[in-house]
Every structure is written in C-alpha cells, then in structure tokens.
Amino acid sequence: MNKSQVLIIDDEAQIQKLLRIALESNDLGVSQAMNGRDGLIMAANHPPDLILLDIGLPDKNGHEVLRELRGWYTKAIIVLSVQDGETEIVSALDNGATDYITKPFRTGELLARIRSAIRRNNVEQERTTIVCGDLEIDLAARGVKKDGEWVKLTATEFNLLAVLARNEGRVLTHRHLLKEVWGVGYQLETQYLRVFVRSLRKKIESDPERPQHITTESGVGYRFS
Length: 225
Description:
Arc Repressor Mutant, subunit A, four-stranded antiparallel beta sheet, 12 strands
C-alpha cells in the first residue's frame, strides 16, 4: 500500500525536523518547503494527501498561500501557527483550512488530526451515506433517519445538515456555512444560520438544549460529530 504523503510548508528548521521524524515514524511520506512560493510549486507538481501550512512564512502571507491552494486543491490543509486569537483562527477557517493547531503543539494530537483528515479524504468521494450514532444521512436520496424513523426536513435544512456532515469533525465558520447553503451574498446574515441550526437541532437531537451532533464553537461556527 502506498504511503499517504504530507507536504510541510514551514520556515522553522526545528519544526520541520520534528514533524519529519514524527510523520515518518508513523509511516507517512514527507516533502518539505521552507517558503510559500516553493510550497505552492511542490503542491502543484506532486499533490500530497495533506498539507501542513504555517501562517508566518518569510515570502508570502500564509493566508494568501491558503487561498491560492484552495483555488484548486481539495484535500486537507491543517494550519500551524503561533497565533491563537479568534480572529486569526476564523480567518484561516474562512479561507479553507481544514483544521487549525497552535504552536507549540502536542505531537500526539497533531498526528491524530492528520490521521482523521486523511481518512476523510479517502472516503469523501465514495460516501453517499453517513451514519453517526442514531442518525443516518443519505446524501444521494436527500433523506435522514433518526433511530430508524424518517425525519422530515426542508430543502434548506437538509442542505445545511449535508454540508456539516460531509465535513464531520471539522469546525465550519458562520461565513462558510452561509456561503455554501445560501450563497455569497448571504455571508453576513448570521441570523439565518441561527434560525436553521435551532430548527435542525429540534428535529435531529435527542435533547436540543444539549446537542450531541451539531455543536457550537463559540464565536467561530459549528461542528458536526
């Protein structure tokens, strides 16, 4: 079986060394770039299964690199950054990051998130049904069952649930969800999102006041699990 390939775009030599040792010892292939320009070229010439991207690069802003990658690259991008502010995290997620991890990070946690992201990559194209606890979401038939019983959803409710479920485990920002479900012109209409999340929770959660499937990431967005 071919190894999953990870591209590291980071200008810190010590971080590069640490990541290479950790990834290779977990049977992952590694390629490395020390700046944004080289990272973009390497990603284009040999698209990896996952990219680890530092925001603080010497030649290009990491957010700019992220936006350029998302113009064509569809697999996971995990952002690494010393910045832990809400604005920085939301900006990275809005620009298409799959996940965001602050430095210094715990190697075990990073590896777990990498494995999870690669697994999602591998099943994303094939999966038409998502089963999560008491929920079964049929993406092809646009139907949802809870405890084996059909749940009646509006078209918009299903579209919102489908976007969340396809990104299981990933935090999706308010802006991202609004763009995906309602369109670019609605990215500031957060009241739409609150209303429909509340409605969805009433239909799919056993206890809407203590949701297990659609959880709130305060100030950022929502996560499906």
